[in-house]
UniProtKB/TrEMBL annotation:
The chain crosses the membrane at residues 12-30, 50-77, 98-120, 132-153, 165-188, 194-219, 257-278, 284-303, 324-349, 361-383, 390-411, 423-442. It comes from Pigmentiphaga aceris. This is MATE family efflux transporter. It is found in: Cell inner membrane. NCBIfam families: matE. The keyword Transmembrane applies. One of its GO terms (molecular function) is xenobiotic transmembrane transporter activity. Pfam families: MatE. GO terms for cellular component: plasma membrane. It is a multi-pass membrane protein. Keywords: Cell membrane, Membrane, Transmembrane, Transmembrane helix, Transport. It comes from the Bacteria. The keyword Transmembrane applies.
């Protein structure tokens, strides 16, 4: 057993969590560099250019969310098979999942490209924004295949406990994107400037290079997964199983994406000041949750591999430790945010005293229960890693559609709180969902599911994989 596997399955759980989490967190931080780089250079083109990217993002995010369930299914299956010592099935899962991702991304990308004008019309985009938004969106949809492929590479590598290679690739592509952005946006020498579309072209090129690098690494087989071209032959039994395992994950992320869009409409009804405060506060929330997102991904790998190895109680301890660390880390960051709220808001919008005041007010209410987000993220990751995708989906739907949005609407529209009702829906939702997650986790029903059990369906997949290995 190699070193990463011995740490994950038999070593100290805190050490294993740290070993996995640090590279993932660093990669996640670097990944935000794509958005920050685009925002930095596109901001030099003016407000309508920035608006074009802002309008396009929720739509492309929704499309990506639809395909992300496949990444969840692949990562869960690969981690459990790795824990069970089934390298043949790890390779089989990786090849078949990559096949599904390519087919799905081509279909979704083509559909998005064709429907882009209608989606922008539906959103009521202003005429001065429409052309740039359409160009940016269409180039983004062309690049969906590369985004999906590299996301799948990252998910599978995390599943087998290899987190450093994706970090190196992300670091290289983010640096390249910082160079290509101004080159394609403004032009230089014989290269014409493409404006907003240039940012999309730069991202497409860097994501394509990352996807190709991931495929090459898999084909060489030096980092826990060995792919062969023969392995991409469709296996209907596995594809059907992975598809139905991934559906709840896709619905979960799509629900979150739609919830964000609906919440934006509600916030917009209170005017420009409230929209600005919400926008800045949401950006800060995305930044502070990056470390805990990485922590939750590390929890997912630990739980998945230990369940695959039959070490259910060790998996439960890893999830519990992750939830405690996530709670403490985000609670500490919440305390810092409460103290520095005006300064943090002013960093994003330095010259508007009203936005700084309202944004700081929103931040100080929202950050009161950030610890609950840490708990929820880690427990939901444990549910996914155990194969209980439905539990994660239910928590997301309850959080968005049964608690936060109804609560925000009632408090904001039917009480004297006004816009404060929007702000208070955040900490209340975080506390309630964290408590629900902990209670569901404590029941232990998630421990009974093990995807590597030798049932008839798995046996058929294993037989197919062994036949392939023999044929080689």
């Amino acid at each position: 057993m190699d070193k990463p596997q011995s740490v994950i399955l038999t070593g100290s759980i805190p050490r294993a969590l740290l070993h996995l989490a640090v590279p993932i967190i660093l990669a996640n931080i670097l990944q935000t560099g794509y958005q920050l780089t685009d925002a930095f250079w596109v901001g030099r083109l003016g407000a309508s250019a920035v608006a074009a990217i802002s309008v396009s993002f929720p739509v492309t995010f929704l499309v990506i969310a639809l395909g992300s369930g496949l990444a969840m299914a692949g990562a869960t299956l690969s981690s459990q098979y790795m824990g069970a010592g089934r390298q043949d099935m790890v390779n089989h899962v990786a090849a078949q999942t990559m096949l599904m991702v390519v087919v799905t991304s081509v279909l979704l990308g083509a559909l998005g490209y064709v429907l882009a004008p209608y989606l922008l019309s539906l959103l009521g985009v202003a005429p001065e924004v429409y052309t740039n938004a359409l160009g940016f969106m269409r180039v983004s949809f062309v690049g969906v295949i590369f985004v999906f492929t590299y996301a799948m590479f990252q998910a599978l590598m995390r599943g087998v406990g290899q987190t450093r290679v994706p970090l190196i690739i992300v670091a290289a592509t983010v640096l390249l994107n910082f160079v290509l952005d101004p080159l394609f946006i403004f032009g230089w020498g014989p290269i014409p400037g493409f404006g907003v579309m240039g940012a999309a072209f730069a991202t497409l090129i860097t994501q394509a290079l990352a996807a190709v690098a991931g495929i090459v690494i898999f084909l060489r087989g030096r980092h826990g997964i060995q792919l062969t071209w023969r392995g991409f032959m469709p296996d209907p039994t596995y594809l059907r199983r992975a598809f139905f395992l991934g559906i709840p994950g896709s619905l979960e992320l799509s629900t979150r994406a739609l919830g964000l869009m609906i919440m934006s409409f509600l916030v917009a009804s209170f005017g420009t000041l409230t929209i600005a405060a919400y926008g800045v506060g949401s950006n800060i929330l995305q930044i502070v949750t990056v470390p805990v997102m990485g922590l939750s991904m590390a929890v997912s790998t630990l739980v998945g591999q230990n369940i695959g190895a039959g070490q259910v109680e060790r998996a439960a301890k890893a999830a519990s430790l992750g939830a405690v660390v996530g709670f403490l880390l985000l609670s500490l960051m919440g305390a810092i945010a409460w103290l520095l709220a005006p300064t943090l808001i002013a960093f994003f919008i330095p010259d508007d005293a009203d936005v700084i005041r309202e944004g700081a007010h929103f931040l100080r209410i929202m950050c009161l229960a950030w610890g609950g987000i840490g708990v929820q993220l880690c427990i939901v990751s444990a549910f996914r890693a155990s194969g209980n995708m439905l539990m994660a989906m239910v928590i997301a739907m309850v959080s968005q559609w049964m608690i936060q949005f109804p609560l925000a609407y009632v408090l904001a529209k039917h009480t004297t709180l006004g816009a404060d009702g929007l702000w208070w829906s955040f900490p209340i939702t975080n506390v309630v969902v964290a408590l629900v997650s902990v209670c569901w986790f404590a029941r232990g029903s998630w421990k009974t599911k093990r995807l590597t059990e030798d049932d008839h369906q798995i046996a058929k997949i294993a037989d197919h994989a062994m036949v392939e290995e023999g044929a080689r």
